[in-house]
Every structure is written in structure tokens, then in C-alpha cells.
């Protein structure tokens, strides 16, 4: 994961200021020109690296070492990131064609933080210490049945998007500021704020990668639009009892929304698979480690349409 301080040149006046600012770009700084598909390097005395993005901030094209007094155009682009020449060559995983670049927002007048999702690295090129650092950063994605889509309820999708936005726009920039401050305080080997901040930054980056990948692959289903409201389908809340007479209330949701302790079960779980397509009043059989159990469907509930 590559981190930069990026300055947004949005309006015409900002763009004029940006053209002056880029003459003194530092190695960790960049300039983002929105609503832009052509870049000229007139007036510069050193080359630039250019990253052209589409409307969804996916990398369309990378141009290395653009010489002064040259024009570069990408007609499908909607914005451009300008960096010091050689940046993309030194850090090839920072910007990868086809991958999304995420622009963290900040208060007016302050720089933005930009980072991009790196491509998968060959394990032979990953240091052992780097691998160990990532071991405790959270669970991997739950495997889906082959050929199945990553179904997700509308509310669950919105909740995960809100979490992603919070991590990108608030928590990560705050942690970056703390790490930068701690790094300026001297010896990093005994600096608790720096060590914890770097660890927290890795945790946040891993969670962002996880959420981004899962949201991109999500198939959003709105349970409120289900026409067969007496039958159990994805997104239904089901009240049932087992043969011991104990009542249970569960909601069938996507694998990334599951929270069994709060009654949110994944649609690929054994209980959900047994309940799916059953109707109110039906008795179904659930195979458990203790043997077969009979479940009586008492009620099937769906959210009301908005």
C-alpha cells in the first residue's frame, strides 16, 4: 500500500495555482487535476510521471518521465495525478492499470491522502517480517460456493460502504497524522505511538482492501421487494422452533453481514440452507452434528417497501 500527500486542483484558480505548485513537488507529494484529460509540461525543468484515471478513479494509463514542454492526452480520462518522475517506476505497486485509486477527503485547505490498492505480490518477493505483520490483521473473505454470487442485503451494503468511507475519510487520515508526528519525535524503535500507529495503519489498510473487494463483487438484493412474502428467501427474518420447543429468530443475510450472536446468519450456513424456500407452517429437517432435528416455521417476515 502506497501513501502520498495529494493536493486537489479542482477549480480553474486552483489549477493555475497547481501548475505553479508542481514545480516544487516533493517525492511524497502529488497533484490531482480533476476534470482533466490532457496535461502539458510547459515551464518545467524536470519530467513528470502521469497517472490518468477514469470517472471511477480506476487507472487507465500511466506515462513515465514526461519531458518538459510536452503534451500527454488520454481521451477516456476524467482526472490526472502528477508525480515526480520515476515515482511509479520506483513503486510499481502504487498505481496499477485497472485498479482503483482511493482519494481520502479532508478539511478544506488541507492536503488529501491518496492510496491505491496494490496488485497481488508473489510470496517469493515478500519479506518474512512483512508476512508476519499481516497475520493478525483480520479474517479472510468467506469462500462462496463455486459459481455463486456475493449476495448482500441493501442495508448491509450501505453499512459496509459507510464503514469504508469512515476508514478512508476519517480514521486513516487521522492515523497517518499521528504516525507522521510520532516519526518526527526521534528514535522510532522505542516510540510506542509510532509502532502502534504503523500497526493500526496496516489493520486499516487490510480492512479497506477487504471491504473494497467485497463491495465490488456484491450483488445487492432488496428483501422489501420480495413478492412471495410467506416463503423464505434471501433477506427474510424467520421465526422457528426446534423439536425441544425452543424458539429462534434469524435473518438470512450475506456472508459479509453475518453476525450469528445477533441472529444474522449467512445464506450459505446449514440453518439458512434448510430454511430457504420453506413456507410458514412447514416442518423441515436440519442435519446437525447431534443428528437430525425438526424445525417448525412459525413466521416469515420481510421489511416493508419504502
UniProtKB/TrEMBL annotation:
Q: Which GO terms describe its biological process?
A: DNA-templated transcription elongation; regulation of DNA-templated transcription elongation
Database matches in SUPFAM superfamilies:
FKBP-like, GreA transcript cleavage protein, N-terminal domain
Residues spanning the membrane: none
GO MF term list: DNA binding; RNA polymerase binding; translation elongation factor activity
Among InterPro entries, the record links this protein to: DUF192, GreA/GreB_C_sf, Saro_0823-like_sf, TF_GreA/GreB_CS, Tscrpt_elong_fac_GreA/B, Tscrpt_elong_fac_GreA/B_C, Tscrpt_elong_fac_GreA/B_fam, Tscrpt_elong_fac_GreA/B_N
Which keywords, in A-to-Z order, does the entry hold? DNA-binding, Elongation factor, Protein biosynthesis, Transcription, Transcription regulation
Name all Transcription elongation factor GreA/GreB N-terminal domain ranges.
Answer: 150-220
Where's the Transcription elongation factor GreA/GreB C-terminal domain?
228-302
Keyword Transcription listed: yes
Lineage: superkingdom: Bacteria
- Read off the Gene3D superfamilies from this record: Protein of unknown function DUF192 (2.60.120.1140), Transcription elongation factor, GreA/GreB, C-terminal domain (3.10.50.30), Transcription elongation factor, GreA/GreB, N-terminal domain (1.10.287.180)
Q: What does this protein do?
A: Necessary for efficient RNA polymerase transcription elongation past template-encoded arresting sites. The arresting sites in DNA have the property of trapping a certain fraction of elongating RNA polymerases that pass through, resulting in locked ternary complexes. Cleavage of the nascent transcript by cleavage factors such as GreA or GreB allows the resumption of elongation from the new 3'terminus. GreB releases sequences of up to 9 nucleotides in length.
Family, per entry: Belongs to the GreA/GreB family. GreB subfamily.
Q: What is this protein called?
A: Transcription elongation factor GreB
Organism phylogeny: Bacteria, Pseudomonadati, Pseudomonadota, Betaproteobacteria, Burkholderiales
